[in-house]
Amino acid sequence: MDTGIFIALINPGIALTFAATFLLLWNYQREKRYILLLSASLAAGAGGFLLQYFLLPNFGLTRLLSNTLFLVAGVGLSISMLGRYNRRLPVRDIMVVWLAGVATYVWYLYGDPNTEYRIYAINFTFGTLTLLIAAELRAVRTRKAVDNIMLFLTVFWGLSFFVRPVVSLWLEDVPVNDVNYHQSIYWYTLTFFCSMFILLISLSSTCALVLDIMDDLNHQSQTDLLSGLLNRRGFEKSAEQKLREAQGSGLPMALLVCDLDHFKAVNDTYGHATGDSVIRIFAERLRTGTSGDHIVGRMGGEEFAVLLCGSDLRAARLFAEGIRTTFSTAPCVELPDGLRTTASFGIAQWLAGETAEQLFLRADRALYAAKNSGRNCVRVAELPPDPVHDASRAKTAT
Fold this sequence. Notes:
This protein is of the alpha+beta class. It is 68% helix and 8% strand. It has 13 helices and five strands. It has helices spanning 3-28, 33-53, 59-83, 91-111, 115-138, 145-171, 185-221, 232-249, 263-270, 272-289, 313-328, 356-372, 387-397; strands spanning 253-260, 295-300, 303-309, 343-349, 378-380. Helix 4 packs antiparallel against helix 5 (115-138) and helix 5 runs antiparallel to helix 6 (145-171).
């Protein structure tokens, strides 16, 4: 195979290989459309590279079509990268830069033909567009390590559009024109840089997608499907982490455990579908009543738990009373008119040095007290005995 053809096929080959890879990934994650867009963008880029070497009968049209495909690939890649964070493309800024770049390119293609000026026009345009995307990526506050790598690659790639053409054209022995274009230093450096970028950004994107899938699986393993809240495993894991963080900060914590009253009778009398509806209604009351710092979970059956971060005993009791009141008056379409379900609540305030297991035990005792008091009420756990205080009091009495 001719060396020139081999070099010309490197970038299309790499791009199409990863395009097929992302297409397969999308087939298993069809709800994530940005994966499909990533595949289509790489395919468009492959077409642009092919038209850089294999010309159509109309030279000007070939060049214009090639760079249009590059633009489509770049915009598509940008949308897919931002789509992972649900961020939108800065359309207005991109349109301004794109129109200015295309107008300049077309002028030096038809109005005042000049290959080197066309090279500067298209490179500076893509460099500016890439840095605009990098700015959007930098604004994301929830980046992972792989996202920082992608951000670095995007910034480096954007800057290369300004440095690479200037340096490579300066190193040329003769001015680059349409005849010697594929033998120029610019063409070889373009091929090399594009190969490295496509390879690195595709590998980084693959890694990011795999990590996203793993996060989704982990989230699903810790989420209760019926209520949409954390399951027991997820709640206990999150609660233990919050309690560890609170050890040194002194942040108040309160645990609330709650149980739906006579839930078995609801299931037996009106069916499990009605019972499921009651659980979803109660879960929604807990979800809407808490903030992002609080942890809410369904511990199993009709039992729920809430870790109120930053709340003392008084605030926790007010919260529980509010949930109890709103739930006891909430209608359920599956139940007969006038029939309402209620819940009982037990609360324990976290004590410094107390383990999660000890905190749960005290809150459960308060819940049992609420059940024994007639249900549909809130009870607060008693503080555990203080050995130092008790010993001092006994000594004084003696």
